[in-house]
Amino acid sequence: EVAEIDRRIKAWRASDPLQDPTSDEAKQAAAAEAAAKAAKRDAKLRERKHRAAAEEARLLGAGQGGQ
Where are the domains of the chain? Predict the structure, then answer.
């Protein structure tokens, strides 16, 4: 029974390489997903820095205008 389950799992993995974590396709897909997440995170950080700089410039401008 265990051998049959093992055989079915191997057949399933062979039919879809992404389901086998040791396959090159799965490794490439995981790397691409990690790169996409990192790019999204970096974009969010850049946006936050830009917003913070814009807010700082606005506040500095408002402070100078009031003097």
Answer: 2-65
